[in-house]
Amino acid sequence: MIVAQLPSLLSVARNVVSSTVLQMSAPLPELASLASVLSAVATRAAWPVKPLLLAVLDGVSEQPPSATARQALPMTVRGHTRQSLRDGPLEALAGEIESCRRCARLVSWREQVAREKRAAFAGEEYWGRPVAGFGDARARIAILGLAPAAHGANRTGRVFTGDRSGDFLFAALWRAGLANQPASRARDDGLALEDVWITAAVRCAPPENRPTPAERDNCLPYTRRELALLPNLRVIVCLGAFAWDAALRLRRSQPRPRPKFTHMGEQHGDGELVLLASFHVSQQNTFTGRLTEAMFDAVLARARELAAR
Ligand code: SF4
């Protein structure tokens, strides 16, 4: 029945999107309901229908772009969509995070890296600041990493953007129908996520990817506040033992003994977000085969199952 409705749904979607772009007015009420219908259909639809639906959704905005988003992103039909824009509180929190200088060691390191740069990026202006989360404000799934990479997010200003870890992660999200493109190159590359929010336990690039416990404790309140602003959140996918430990610390009740990190391990609790563990998407794991594409596809599939409960 859903498939039978597709031609008319797609036709209506295109007309509404075109009309809205031409008028450049506030989103129409019909747009929100249309996005909702398409989103539901896209979630259930099988390949090859799903990419087509997601492509249409990519042009449908339920929320007017924020000032920050308008600056960062072109106003095009395939530009940014409802979910990848930050709403008010998320945007305010992002501003707070991005101006934080609480950890002297990390501030010094992130700025030194940004000044000295890697030769391959010598012509680029590094971000050199803390990195806020990114994704769908209505996400049911959060992906929690360790911290920005020195020449990845610390260069581009968006989590998992511009490095090999991000290449692996976003390709998987795209295969799963959770991202509109398989790569994340820059803040203005048009990437939009569906049902996923990506963030990190520590927001500044640490030397050797190793924040101290004090730096973790300084930064974790940002993650707590950010995740609390995602009303539909059900599951946190923890990339690696550091993120697993950090997510456990975010719980209201601390399980004893503390559950050990194991790939595909889960932690459930009354009234708590479900934690799902995965090996980190770092090159160290993906180049050695410790984490394969199939393994990570299974992680995302399980996350979706848990989110739907
Ligand atoms: S790691 Fe977190 S708390 Fe420390 S300076 Fe960066 S943003 Fe601030």
Task: Give a short overview.
The chain is built from 12 helices and 6 strands. It has 309 residues and is α/β, with parallel strands linked by helices.
Task: Explain how this protein is built.
The longest helix has 22 residues. Helices cover 45% and strands 8% of the residues. It has 2 domains: 52 residues, no CATH class; 241 residues, Uracil-DNA Glycosylase, subunit E (3-Layer(aba) Sandwich), CATH 3.40.470. The N terminus is likely disordered. It has a 6-stranded mixed β-sheet with strand order 1-3-2-4-6-5. The chain has 12 helices and 6 strands. Bound molecules: iron/sulfur cluster.
SSE layout and pairing:
Elements: H1 2-23, H2 29-44, H3 49-57, H4 67-72, H5 88-98, H6 104-116, E1 134-135, E2 141-145, H7 153-156, H8 164-175, E3 196-200, H9 213-228, E4 235-239, H10 240-249, E5 266-267, E6 274-278, H11 283-286, H12 293-307
Parallel strand pairs: 2-3, 2-4, 4-6
Antiparallel strand pairs: 1-3, 5-6
Helix pairs in contact: 1-2, 1-3, 2-3, 8-12
Bound molecules: iron/sulfur cluster.
